[in-house]
Amino acid sequence: MIIDTLEKPTSSAIDPFSPDYFRDPYPFHVQLRDAGPVVWLEKWGVWAVARFEQVQAVLGDWRTYCSSAGVGIVNEKKMGGWRKPSALLEKDPPEHTANRAIVSRILSPAALRALRATFEREAEVLVDRVVGAGDLDGMADFSEAFPMKVFADAVGVPVEGRHHLVPWGNMVFNGMGPRNALFDRAMANADEVTAWITAACKRENLTPDGLGAQVYTHVEAGEISADHAALLVRSFLSAGVDTTTFAIGNALFCFAMHPEQWDVVRENPGKVKQAFEEIMRFESPFQTFFRTATCDTEIAGTAIPQDSKVLISVAAANRDPRKWCNPDTFDIGRSTVGHVGFGAGIHGCVGQMIARLEVEVLLTALAKRAKRIEICGEPERLLHNTLRSFEKLPVRFHA
Ligand code: OVV
Questions:
Q1: How far is the CA of 206 from the centre of ligand 1 (A)?
Q2: Which CATH number characterizes residue 101's domain?
Q3: Into how many domains does the chain fold?
Q4: Residue 194: what are its φ and ψ, rounded to 5°?
């Protein structure tokens, strides 16, 4: 008798790249988590993990679940990608380790202390402009405006043409999804956008004292080539704008919907940092990415063949009731320890300290000035293959 110890795979018709899913992913997350520790997604022929335990396990095992075949749905080792692979995001050790060490040092807490005063000044300027200014778009006028100023300045990219950073982020993150309408729309102006980004990453176009220029000190030291340095600078521009923009937008929405928690923050701005962690858990800007199995393996008894793509829903893990009490309650007083909004493992967000700094400084300035954040129109949900936020967020900041 043959004893089959492997489970029959659970399969699901859920499409995590459909407008319904983007508008309200949470009921689908419940279904995916409840279907089992790992689920076969029929529509795309990929596996998905949505429970906290398996998400953490997959992210913690880079040998079995690699990044070098791309972290989108396409196996870039087999099919090729639309851009040169990132030297961080789409690499495994040992290459990843060396590249990450360079960027990690540039973004260390000590290095970021030097940026705080400038960020604070710019936060005051922006908050001054928006509080009491009537109806605004909380995305363009606030959430995007801040990283586009302070982060782009910190990296040291030219002021001229900075608007290209937004469509570039759109390409990078929608480009992780399948070839759907969102993918095609994001790539519509790819040549022009890519040309600007490529130029912006070059040493001669960066300010001499920014984060970007610091990558080039490793060229002068003979450790890496100038092309490689440019590729590392590109990671700043790919990963650092949309993610923080959308996190700030999600923060505005959470506080507008929960004014009593905004009051808590206003009375005690020291709580902003903790509140941001809850925003990252509750409305993770980065919802979904992939790993690729490097060998035949299994998850909780289900066979996962080599080269399988595995969708990781960090957003679902962040609301898994197996891990969190009342996960669908936004509560800035809860413990958020272990949330995977910044990922986990060797690829855990290398920019998380600068992201935290930006959001902390901006929300602190806002908390001192705005009594209430009012949604004054119909928010327009962002339909996006990877990220969750708003296209438009009509908002009024009351003095
Ligand atoms: C985390 C992240 C997202 C998007 C792009 C990159 C990284 C990159 O390194 O290019």
A1: 19
A2: 1.10.630.10
A3: 1
A4: -60, -40
